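Inverse folding, one chain.
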């Protein structure tokens, strides 16, 4: 399977890496500098035509650095002083998905409760319905971003 994926990767020529572009591949974590470095990538066409396990196996064997536990990631490339640093986008997607699942459940519970606190009172005074407090905006405001 490795040879088939290698042929698919070589079909369009060599990949030119572009600053701030997103890639699918595996990163290498450098504990000394506390950064993730681009270890290996595949083209989107290759990713969509092969199984997850085959892609991870190919990336592990084709990597320029040995990654102990290879995990397929969506990465945004940042070229800094000829070092290909990456920001893992998959991590943030998982955080947003997990938080949205909880927010959506709270939102549906709020809508299903016909006797919401203050709803009838506000409606009788203003003639407007109360806006749901569980929204996308501000959903991740409790997170601290430490670099």
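Residues assigned per position:
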């Amino acid at each position: 399977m490795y040879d088939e994926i290698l042929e698919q990767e070589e079909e369009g020529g060599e990949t030119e890496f572009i600053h701030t572009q997103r890639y699918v591949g595996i990163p290498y974590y450098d504990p000394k500098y506390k950064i993730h470095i681009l270890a290996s990538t595949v083209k989107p066409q290759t990713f969509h035509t092969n199984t997850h396990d085959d892609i991870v196996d190919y990336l592990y064997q084709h990597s320029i650095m040995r990654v102990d536990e290879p995990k397929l990631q969506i990465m945004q490339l940042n070229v800094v002083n000829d070092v290909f640093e990456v920001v893992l986008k998959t991590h943030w997607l998982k955080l947003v998905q997990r938080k949205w699942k909880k927010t959506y459940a709270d939102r549906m519970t709020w809508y299903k409760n016909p006797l919401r606190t203050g709803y009838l009172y506000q409606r009788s005074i203003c003639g407007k319905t109360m806006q749901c407090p569980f929204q996308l905006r501000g959903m991740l405001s409790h997170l601290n971003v430490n670099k």
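The chain is about 40% helix and 20% strand. The chain has a mean pLDDT of 83.
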